[in-house]
Design brief:
The chain is an alpha+beta fold and about 230 residues long. It has helices spanning about 5-15, 25-30, 35-50, 75-80, 90-105, 110-115, 120-130, 150-155, 170-175; strands at about 55-60, 65-70, 130-135, 145-150, 185, 190-195. It has 2 domains: about 5-70, Arc Repressor Mutant, subunit A, CATH 1.10.10; about 90-200, Winged helix-like DNA-binding domain superfamily/Winged helix DNA-binding domain (Arc Repressor Mutant, subunit A, Orthogonal Bundle). Residues about 180-225 have low confidence and may be disordered.
Length: about 230
């Protein structure tokens, strides 16, 4: 099959999925087409969309490929859908998520040791949002659960893999600069807000999930799990 014939098939497969599709899965759906040819075609499609300044782009995130909207059209999308930021991640949640991302696998007690406060509520909240998952148990007395990030975490922050996480020293500046990620915004109350899926403007550049606020003791807003 020629690349010209592969392109429309790949576009159909990508449009039919609402999450990143791994290369192996795309190749499997195209019987007889080698993975190398599929990979080459994906790269060509991504370059083609960029050169044509289309309203969407093709990016490699969360160990797969996905069609996403461009950042400059976020306002128009929100107006069309008349959306309100409903999925809120508080600063304690972002702090805990950052600790898990950089220190994984890590126990809840270790997260609390870094934050200095009880983190059961925020950990449960992150589990419910599927940004964090259990990855095993630590081989110590009590065998506490170990936590790590998920593919949904990579997708939400526009990361191809964990290797694209920004350096810890850059977290403050990245979070303060909205152009760095375009995934989090401040609402009228000064809280960090997670944009809805239709507003997520993923890019190949990593976004910062948290800010280390010196001098301020974080307070869990989710509360303890019931």
């Amino acid at each position: 099959m020629e690349i010209a014939d592969i392109k429309p098939v790949l576009e159909a497969l990508l449009l039919a999925s609402d999450k990143p599709v791994p290369l192996a899965q795309l190749a499997k759906a195209m019987d007889g087409v080698e993975r190398k040819a599929v990979s080459q075609t994906l790269e060509e499609l991504a370059a083609e969309y960029d050169s044509q300044a289309r309203g969407f782009r093709l990016v490699e995130i969360a160990e797969g490929w996905q069609l996403v909207t461009r950042p400059q059209f976020a306002g128009a999308i929100r107006k069309m859908n008349r959306t309100k930021a409903a999925n809120r991640l508080t600063r304690p949640s972002l702090e805990s998520l950052a600790i898990v991302a950089y220190k994984q696998p890590i126990t809840k007690a270790e997260v609390e040791s870094v934050r200095g406060v009880n983190s059961e509520g925020v950990i449960n909240s992150l589990l419910e949002r599927r940004l964090v998952r259990t990855v095993g148990r630590k081989d110590v007395v009590g065998r506490p659960l170990l936590y790590g990030t998920t593919r949904e975490f990579l997708q939400a922050f526009g990361l191809k893999d964990l290797g694209e996480l920004p350096q810890l020293a850059d977290l403050k500046d990245l979070l303060k600069n909205d152009e760095a990620g375009e995934l989090w915004e401040m609402d009228e109350n000064g809280d960090l807000v997670e944009k809805r899926p239709e507003d997520l403007l993923k890019s190949a550049e990593p976004a910062a999930p948290a800010e280390d606020a010196p001098g301020e003791e974080p307070a869990d807003e989710e509360g303890p799990a019931s």
